[in-house]
Structure formats: structure tokens, C-alpha cells
């Protein structure tokens, strides 16, 4: 801007950060005092603490306990703005993003932190029946299905039908799958044990299916065995070396075996956001962008890729794991290199400091690997609690989560057991193929007019719930 005296203010470079997760948020924070304009672009208005998302799905926490508006987080950063939008494309030659509504957004530096989506290994049609857990919507829908299964089981009289309703399948033996299976078992065997009059919730069958030889393949073998033992102590049925070959509405197939089941949770793998392929640079088989040591991409030093979207191999020879610590440390490193570039200083190679890995299995049950130190049971559980409370964004969230955990520990109760949306149980069972019209009552003319969804189709869940019908692979964050 020019004044009457002819003075022109110096140009301030614009840093656009796509994604308000760990990587994007920590990058923005690290640029607070830098001579730049920062724009955070995300299709959600909140930062989500994803490691605790499973606790929303299992009714321990409410969504607001683990999420915080991005604008609130950066309200004291005058150089930072937030844009609620979705990025549809990247033109690295013109240094321009294309938003989903067609608007262009120019940048001088770009930090892509768009995260990952669920990977169904060529069976995207399974997504409607077996949702993964990447968003709050996913978590609340899983919670809904899980709690509804018990409500329907209370009303049916057919033992086979009730058995199917009370069979819960979790596919994938990584940290998310292990944590979900353990939480499901605790709810069924303790929280709900005295609340139903026509069946015993402790009869619920929790099935964890893993295609590999052991659970938690990224952990030491002794910790994997400990996790297996702790899960079995909770009553979880664990199947190793078992490949899921088909998922349909009302059943999961392992080989030729058909397992009638109501809710299915997918925790078997993720792929990088499709936005990474728009850069036109090499990616690995998971779609992660192969970045240089300073986290920029070949040929475009102004573009940085971090978090789950980046394949960072220069340090260990193999990609770093897709965990929160890699993302937040990468966000800080990208911000440092932008500041060094502005000062015309050489950039630094990113060096990840492994602060350990943890997974909780249930009440006072967990495993932790911190350097050469391995912890199991109650001590590991306490360490897990401390670390997760520490890294939550916002004092209010830390207090709320701590109080909910204390209440749950003392009473075995879950504070967020809400089923939202109107449901016709008889129609639900019929659409699942678990009841005939005679068993469920006559259909109204309106119900007859609604076609049953094809197995794995996108007709939503529990009839008429159109907002729950999602694409097989959800769009990338940002």
C-alpha cells in the first residue's frame, strides 16, 4: 500500500497451511512471530485430538472434549487467519491452490498437512458397512451402531438374531483396533451388565481380526504378546492370521466362514490423502509424498509436506510412522525452515525424536515402549493417561477429559451414551436381513417405497439417515 509520500509497505510472504491437525496447527504456532501471513485452510472449523477419537466411539468422551475451534487456538496470533474451505487441487508452477468452490488461493510457501483416509485395499464398497475412524462423524456413528445393537437385542426373541446383534467385529490389530476391542469388551461386560432385563450384555462377543501373525506389529514382540493376553483377559476373541474376504450388511466373511454381525469397525489400514498425488512428484504405494530431508518436495523448495501425507525416509531408511509426534515435530521443522529461508540461512534436515509409543487396552491395562523401556499393565496405563492429557489442546479439554476418566474409573460408567436420530428397530432389523416382516411387524407404504441398500452400498445406515451416507473414501482434510 502506498502513502501520499510514496512509501510502500514491504511485501509480507503468505504461508498457506492445508489441514488443522497436529502438523498444521504446530506449524502455525511456530510461525507466530515470523514476518509472514499465515492462512490455515481446513474443511472443519476445529482441531481434533485424533488419538482419543476412539473414546468418543466408545461413549467415554463427548466430541467437544477432544476438539477445539481452530480460530480459538490461534486467536492471539495476529498474523494468522483461518479459512473454512476444502482444497481440490494444487498448481505448484503458479503457486496456487484451487478450492472446492473454484476460488484460487495463492501462496508463497505451502505446508500440506492433509492427513490420511481409510484404506480398504480395493474394496471401497465396504466403507458404508464398516466405517473407519478418522472424523467425529465416524466416531459418533460407530457409537450409535454399537449402542443400538444392545437396544435391539432387548426387543428380539430369536436367539440367533440376538447372537448376531451382540457380535461386534473390529478389523485390524493395530493400536486403534486394540483400543476399540478392549473398550467394547469393558462396556458390554461391566458398564451395561445390569441395565437390560431380557438378556445379559455380558454374553456379547467381541471379535478382533488381524491378518498378520501378531497384534501391534510396530511394537516389540513381548509387548504384542502382553497386549494379546490383556485383551483375552477382557474376554475379547482375537484371531490372528485371518484375512477378511468380504463384508456385507449384516455379516463379515473370514475365508469361507460367515460371521453374522451388526456393527463392524474398520481399523485395518490408512492411505495418504489424495491431495498428495496432485503435486506431481513421486509417492510411495500408500500415496505418501516422498519428501527431501528438509520436508520440501523435489523441484519446489517452497512446498512442504508433513504428517501422514509425507514419506520421510532419510533418517531411518524406511518411512516414519503415522503418529502425532511425527506430525507435530514435522510442523515445527517446516516452520523453522521457512523462517531460515526468509533470513537467507541454509535449511536444516528434519530429525525425528522418538518419544515412545503407547496403546491402552482397557481399565488399568496398557502397553508402552519408551526407548528401551517397556511397560505393561497399570504403570503403562498411568503413563498413557498422563501423556494424552498433556498433549490435549486447551486447559478446558484437559480438565474435562481428566474428570470423565476419573468418573469412569470410579463407577465403570460412560458419560456419553447418546443415540441420536429417530430409529424404527423393526425396520432396521428387516433392512439388515436379520428379521422378516412377520417378525418385525408390517411395513408402512412409505417404508415399502424405500429400497433396501445393496450390500456395501451407500444408502446410509438405519434407513432414512441420509446424512450418514458417506463416500467410500472420504474427501481429504483441508
Model description:
This protein is an alpha/beta fold and 478 residues long. Helices cover 30% and strands 21% of the residues. The protein is built from 13 helices and 25 strands. It has helices at residues 22-30, 53-57, 70-73, 136-155, 159-165, 175-191, 221-233, 324-342, 377-391, 395-411, 425-431, 437-440, 445-449, and strands at 14-18, 37-42, 46-48, 67-69, 80-84, 87-91, 96-99, 104-106, 109-112, 116-118, 167-171, 205-209, 236-239, 244-248, 251-254, 257-260, 264-266, 270-272, 289-290, 296-297, 300-305, 310-311, 357-362, 365-370, 373-376. A six-stranded mixed beta sheet has the order 5-2-1-9-21-20, with helices on one face. The chain has a four-stranded parallel beta sheet with strand order 13-12-11-17. Strand 23 (357-362) and strand 24 form a beta hairpin. Helix 1 runs parallel beside helix 8 (324-342) and helix 4 packs antiparallel against helix 5. The longest helix is centred in the first third of the chain and has 20 residues, at 136-155. The protein is elongated. The model is unreliable at 436-478 (pLDDT under 50).
